[in-house]
Fold this protein.
Amino acid sequence: MSNSVLKAIAERYSCRGYTEQVPTDEQLKAIADAAVMAPSAMNLQPWKIIVIKDRDILNDLESDAIEYLANLENKAMYERIMSRGGKVFYNAPVMFLIPIKEGGELDCGIVCQNITLAAHSLGLGSVICGMARIPFDGARGQEFKERVGFPEGYKFGMSVLVGYPASNGTPHEPDRSKITFVG
Ligand SMILES: Cc1cc2nc3c(=O)[nH]c(=O)nc-3n(C[C@H](O)[C@H](O)[C@H](O)COP(=O)(O)O)c2cc1C
């Protein structure tokens, strides 16, 4: 079976290289709308959506994350990133940052999926990016939170990077051995 929703789910992949073209405000508003349409337990909507297009902020967040990884005793992650071009945000022009209230982790995951599928449906690439936690939870966290208007009483939930893919990617092979039907 197929329809536009199933097709978007099947085609989506984590995009790890972006062109410099910035999505339009109309596209970003449509994605942000999809984000806040996500279901949440008791409809508490324990999230905020901050759309960051400021190149200086994105560069500073990335440098902070790379510096942190470079200073870890275990250099495996740093070396992996360096071997892949030295980027943790892959030149993405936009970050959807999702601050959440305590306990909002699952709801946040659904928001992320709405963002990635909405982005895909608009011809954009995306990748859910947990690495953005590093700068917001790190030594300069307060400074970064102030720069992006991070709300009081919220913590880092997740980020999703969005932009135009620099090249085509492929979705991962679905592992249907994980599925069982009962009855
Ligand atoms: C919670 C979460 C955090 C993730 N963080 C990162 C990240 O920091 N950097 C990255 O390149 N990919 C990240 N990913 C993307 C996964 O690596 C990716 O979804 C997985 O490898 C499957 O590939 P696909 O998305 O192309 O199907 C994250 C995904 C999830 C769900």
About this structure: The radius of gyration is 17 Å.
